[in-house]
Design brief:
It contains five helices and eight strands; from the N terminus they run ββαααβββαβαββ. The chain has 191 residues and is an alpha+beta fold. It has one domain: Aminopeptidase (3-Layer(aba) Sandwich). The protein has an eight-stranded mixed beta sheet with strand order 1-2-3-4-5-6-8-7, with helices on both faces. The chain is globular, with a radius of gyration of 16 Å. Bound molecules: coenzyme A (COA). Coenzyme A binds at residues 44, 47-48, 109-111, 116-122, 145, 149-152, 154-155, 158.
C-alpha cells in the first residue's frame, strides 16, 4: 500500500527501474570513480548547492547515499543513472519525500557532461516521477532550478511539469544570491 493508504509499512521505490536506454539502480561504494568524474566538475556544479567536489566530498556523498538506503522510513531515493548496454554510471537522479503529511516529493538530477543533450535526464526523471507517484503514492512532486539553468528548466518542461513560481534571491549559494524557478507536477497530471 502507498502513502495515500496510510500503510503500516513505509512505501519504497522498487529498484532497479528500467527505461528504454537506462537502468536506474542503487548507488554502490564502487561507484566512487564514476560519481567523482562528474561531481568534481565546475560545469556540473555551476548552478548546484554542492560541488565541485573534492574526492573526499564525493566519498561522503556515496556514504550518504548508502545511509539513505538503510534509513527507515526511507525519505531519500538518490539513484545511479546507468546506460545500457555497458551499464556505466553517467549520473544520478533522485526523489526525496519533503513533506510526508502532504504527500510531496522533490526531484533532482545530475549528469556527466559527456552525456548532456541526449534526453537522458528527461528519460531518467520520467521514470522517477512515475515511481514517485505510483510506488510512493506522492500527490505532488516539485523541482527547483537556478533561473539561468536553461537545460534544467527545459528538462522539467519536457516532463510536463508546470512552472509555479519565479523566486528572487531565494538561495544563498557559494557567496551569491540565486534566483530560482519552482516547477511542480500533480499525480493527476502525470501520464
Ligand atoms: C540539467 C541536465 C541534467 C540536463 O541533462 P540532459 O540529459 O542534457 O537533458 P535532456 O537532454 O533530457 O534535455 C535537455 C534540454 O535542455 C536543452 N538544453 C541543454 N543545454 C542547454 C543550454 N545550455 N541552454 C538551453 N537549453 C539547453 C536541450 O536542448 C533539451 O531541450 P530540447 O529537447 O527542447 O532541445 C544537465 O545539463 C546537467 O547535469 N547539468 C548540471 C547539473 C544540474 O544543473 N542539474 C540540475 C539541477 S536543478
Amino acid at each position: 500500500m502507498n502513502l495515500r493508504g496510510r500503510p503500516a509499512t513505509t512505501p519504497q521505490i522498487e529498484l532497479p527501474l528500467e527505461t528504454q536506454r537506462l537502468i536506474l539502480r542503487e548507488f554502490k561504494k564502487s561507484d566512487l570513480k564514476a560519481v567523482h568524474a562528474y561531481s568534481s566538475l565546475e560545469d556540473v556544479a555551476r548552478y548546484l548547492v554542492w560541488g565541485p567536489n573534492t574526492l573526499n566530498q564525493s566519498k561522503e556523498a556515496i556514504e550518504g547515499f548508502l545511509d539513505d538506503q538503510r534509513a527507515r522510513p526511507r525519505e531519500i531515493f538518490d539513484v545511479a543513472i546507468t546506460l545500457k548496454p555497458k551499464r556505466e554510471v553517467v549520473g544520478g537522479v533522485g526523489i526525496r519525500v519533503i513533506d510526508r503529511d502532504n504527500l510531496t516529493g522533490e526531484l533532482g538530477y545530475t549528469l556527466h557532461p559527456d552525456f548532456w543533450g541526449y534526453g537522458i535526464a528527461t528519460e531518467a526523471s520520467y521514470a522517477m516521477l512515475d515511481a514517485g507517484f505510483s510506488m510512493l503514492g506522492l500527490q505532488r512532486i516539485v523541482a527547483h532550478c537556478d533561473q539561468r539553468n536553461k537545460a534544467s528548466a527545459r528538462v522539467m518542461e519536457r516532463l510536463g511539469m508546470r512552472r509555479e513560481g519565479a523566486f528572487r534571491a531565494s538561495k544563498h549559494i557559494q557567496g551569491e544570491w540565486r534566483d530560482e524557478f519552482l516547477y511542480a507536477m500533480l499525480a493527476e497530471d502525470f501520464s
